[in-house]
Every structure is written in structure tokens, then in C-alpha cells.
Write a structure and sequence with these properties.
Shape: globular
Strand order of the largest sheet: 2-1-3-4-5
Distance between the termini: 18 Å
Amino acid sequence: MADEPPIRVLIADDQEMVREGFSVLLGSRPDIDVVGEAVDGRDAVEKTAVLRPDVALLDVRMPVMNGLEATREIVAAFPATKVLILTTYDLDEYVYQALRVGASGFLLKDAPARQLADGIRVVATGGALLAPTVTRRLIAEFSRMPAERTGLRAPLRQRVAELTERETEVLALVAQGLSNAEIGEHIVVAESTVKTHVSRVLDKLGLRDRTQAAVFAYESGVVAPPGAGQDPGAGPESGPRKQRRTHTD
């Protein structure tokens, strides 16, 4: 709404030209206010403590402290600040790990200005930015790691057992990048009912948002990565569907 305060954004990148470029692009948006810039991850954490931005826009690869560690500290100490990760690479283990520790999403640095602004609006309002062309590749790649398959899967499945059959189905569909409206169409229920299911899933699993829910679904075996067979006892979905546009609700 027009009377709502602008979204306060902190930009962290070790390249001055990148910081200035993003500041100019975002500063031209009437609903976004760039309140500060940070030169590395440690600087980002310290400035978050002072400025308390709504969104911290972090480069994943920075000196002193990378975007992963900065995300971990910001999310733990300042839960009201949402983290949006920026990366040059479309397949980056740091990004995947950042999603696991609480980042609300990520974008490639070459994303159009409008997509960057929209992404900030999405995470500022509590949504998760799932860019399917990148996110699913990350999840698929790193959920195959031996530590994930052997060390985490059993306890994660115990947590899945706390969900109802319908909630497990909704979790699988969230992991495939479907919006609430599309999930409603798929399981033939009202969108408001889907929102209730998603909220219960997040609450029962102790997850922050849909991004973490998607990661959890792959790591627990509720959804199998593309090209991988689904483990016995996993959820009802055999793998993600075709690529879809970014969903925010």
C-alpha cells in the first residue's frame, strides 16, 4: 500500500561497482530504501546489528566472512531481517548451504533489475524466492551427497512421520515449486486450505519458510532429485515436475 514504509535494504558485496550499481537500481524504486552498504560478510553482520534492515542482500563469495557464514549469523541474531543471496554462479554449494541455514532465497547477479526488486519485495513480506532454474539444480546436486543420504535422512524421516498424509503431499508439491493456487488445483482444495497446510508443515518441521521446506523435502527423501531413484518409504512424489516460473506465495 502507498502509506507503507519503504523496504529497508542492506547491500553486501566486496566489489564497489556492484554495490553502487545495485544501490542505484534499487534506490530508484519508491518502495525500496537502501540504508547501507557492506564490503564483506563480517561488515554485513555488524551493519545489520546497527541498521536492522528488512532485507540483507548478500554476495555469496566475500572476503573475511562469506555469504554463508554471514547468513547464519544474521538469521540467528536478527530474525526480522530476511536474507537474499546473490551469486554469479548458477550451481554453487555455498548458496545451497545458505538456504539450509536460513536464507529466504537467492538470485543470479545478472538477473534483471525488476526481478531483483521483486525478489526483495517477496522476501521482505515473508515469502521465499524459489528460482526453479537454479534452486532445483542445487537441491538435486547436493542432496546426493553421502552425508546427506546417510547421516541426516533417518532422523529427517522421523520428523516427516509427524505430518499427515495430506501435509506430506503438500510438502512434496512445495518442493516442486508449485504456488498455493497450483497446489490447490492439484489436490482439489481451496487455496486458503493449502495455506493452512503449508503453515502446519512449517510449524511441525520447525522450518522458517518454503525455501527450507523444499530443501527438507529433498534431503528427507519426500521428493527424489532428478535422475535419482526414490528411496523406499519416501513420500508419494517421484520427483519434481517440469521447470516453472518463480513462485512467491
